[in-house]
Amino acid sequence: MAEFSSRGPRLGDHAIKPDVTAPGVGIMAAAAQGTADGPYVAHSGTSMAAPHVAGAAAILAQRHPDWNGEQLKAALIGSAAPQAGATHFDQGAGRVDVARAVGQQVYASPANVGTVFRWGGSGERQATKEITYTNAGGSPVTLDLAVDGDVLRTSAQRVEVPAKGTASVTVTIDGTGKEPGDHPGTITARSGDLLVRTVATAYVEPEAYDVKISALGTDGRPVDAIGEFYNGKGESVRMVLRGAPDTYRLPAGEWSLYVDIYEGERITTTHLPVKVGEQGTGMVLDTRKAKPIRFTLDEPTAVTSGWLEMWVINGSWWLGWAGGRPDPSAVYFVLGSKQPGLKYVSRMHSHKKDASPTPVRYDLVDERHDGMPEDPTYTARVKDLDKVTTTFRGAGTAATGTYFVANAIDGVSEFDGARLFSEGVPGRVGMDGAAAGTISLAKDDQVISTIDYTRCGPWELDSCRLTARLPAEPATYMLSTTADRQVPYSTLSTKVEPTWTFRSANTAKPEALALTAIRYAPRGLDEYNRAKPGSSTRLSVIATGTPVGSVLDPPELVRQVRARHEQTARPWTGP
Predict the structure, then answer these.
(1) How far is 76 from 342, CA to CA, in rounded Å?
(2) First CA to last CA across the chain, in angstroms?
């Protein structure tokens, strides 16, 4: 399963979601005109998986034109193939299996059942659901029933479904004596090669209470809001208000709440602690008390970019967003709150008007601690700002570019081919979105995963990541990559082809691989990285990324360096 794939259970009733899965990583599809180097491009996400399911439903509907949407859905769920290593809340019934869906004539409805046993309710922790098997074929079918799960049992172990008819069984979901939490399972009906699965679950609620929340706009009326309750145990509950108050059920204890409140173009953000206890909790988020996010600078020629970033960080939890408006202070607001340990960070930049030939950029960052600021105004003076001078050099030719500066937020770096054109210097996370190539992983000389990628910009990296399911035991792997760019802004470093061989095995917690990168740093070049005629150029070769530091130590670990120079005009000589 892809890391970015949404998981269940469903908010509120803890039902099993998704119902099914489908291929959605690195899917080649027709490219819109002008968006790719060729007629096809690889993408990842729901927009790639959903067409697979829609296509499967269309094929099934062609086979059964009299079936409605619910029948098609039930048949696709019941015939799906579960994948090893994935839970019910990762994959539902499993991956869509078109051949099985079309080939068998029996389906179960509903194909997904569940119940919730509330804390503080009646002592009865049993519920019953009726499952009906429909036989669209011309011959009767005898189904043998089996259950997988600690809360499920069926009223019969075998059921006869007549030709063109139906038969029902009762499923008892029994949460008696079960620990709080989710208890998913599967009811399997089998007849020879025919196989129909129904997913089912019980949610046994821990000690929990109601939390009522409402958001008010500037006119005092309820407005829309989206947010998230979360706690230190890794639990989270999504919050959505649609112009009216709503009540959420949360386990007792200490929680936090992040909220974005919407009123027309105006967005108000807040974050506050929530204590859930026996009396229940009620909160009113009143945007009339919010203040605009505003940056001021004592430079009359400074012109704002209109681009605002904001981060809220609470221990290991964080969330950030960015947005642009001509006047951000008219759109983005903060509702103040106090919460020990909470960090608020906002950022906006501007430039000095008509600064030539050297542009001047002002980067302002407002960092506050222990809550959301009551007044998120940041006033800066030019004389108090640190000055950083950056020199840019062309890659063999003149070019223009975008200067991007980001706040340092702790996280995990992902490998992708587009980053092979970066400098590899701490704090400089470069990439080239025009790069195209292949990433391949082999185990003991057998390729186990490979992808072709293209156009891997900062926000289009899902289709550029290589994913593979690896065994737990130690093994030798080879990671091979290519990255090629043919662009007008660079005549240098047009192709990179690194290969790494390493040992790896299952670890108790994630550990970074100590992969080495060989980099070179020529000296004495001009502003376009060209050697000056008649001069000698010193070329330093550096190995980075080892466990002992940024440069190999001792240097004897670099056993051999080979260089090849190709030039059609005249031969190159050198050591």
Answers:
(1) 46
(2) 51
Helical (H) or strand (E) element with 269: strand 266-276
Residue 9: asked if its preceding bond is cis (omega within 30°), the reply is: yes
Q: How many angstroms separate the CA atoms of 385 and 391, rounded?
A: 19
The helix (H) or strand (E) run that includes residue 46 is: helix 46-63
| Encoded tokens for 97 | 């299996």
Q: How far is CA 501 from CA 293, 352, 513, in A?
A: 50, 49, 11
Asked if 33 and 432 count as a contact pair (C-beta separation under 8 A), the reply is: no
Whole-number Å distance between alpha carbons of 58 and 35: 29
pLDDT confidence of residue 93:
96
Q: Which residues pair with 225 in a beta bridge?
A: 241, 261
Contact 295, 307 (CB under 8 A): no
What is d(CA 494, CA 483) in angstroms, rounded to the nearest whole number?
Answer: 8
| 254 neighbors 275 (Cβ within 8 angstroms) | yes
pLDDT in tens, 313-370: 999 999 999 998 989 999 999 999 999 999 999 999 888 888 777 788 899 999 999 9
Dist. CA 350–CA 296, nearest whole Å? 10
Cα 521 to the chain's mean position, in Å? 35
The rounded distance, in Å, linking the Cα atoms of 445 and 343 is 48
Question: Residue 477: CB partners within 8 Å, gap ≥ 6?
Answer: 441, 442, 443, 470, 501, 502, 503, 504
Distance, in Å, from the CA atom of 419 to the CA atom of 465, rounded to the nearest integer, reads 11
Give every CB contact of residue 357 below 8 A, 6+ residues apart in sequence: none
Instruction: Look up residue 193 and give its DSSP letter.
Output: T
Helix (H) or strand (E) holding 50: helix 46-63
Are 286 and 218 within 8 A, CB to CB? no
CB atoms near residue 41 (< 10 Å): 20
CA distance 423 to 445: 30
Q: Using the CB atoms, write b or e for 447-458: b if 16+ within 10 Å.
A: eeeebbbbbbee
C-alpha–C-alpha distance, residues 19 and 93, integer Å: 6
- Read off the amino acid at residue 282: G
Nearest Cα to 457, choosing from 474, 472, 442, 436?
436
Q: Is 58 within 8 Å of 50 (Cβ atoms)?
A: no
- pLDDT band at residue 412 under the 50/70/90 scheme: very low
Q: How confident is the model at residue 574 (pLDDT cuts 50, 70, 90)?
A: very low
DSSP 153-187: EES-SEEEE-TT-EEEEEEEEE-TTPPSEEEEEEE
**Would the pLDDT of 27 be above 50?**
yes
Query: Any alpha helices (H) in 64-197, and if so which ranges?
Result: 69-78, 88-91, 98-103
- Picking from 135, 199, 195, the residue whose alpha carbon sits closest to that of residue 171 is 199
Determine the 3-state secondary structure of 490 from DSSP: strand
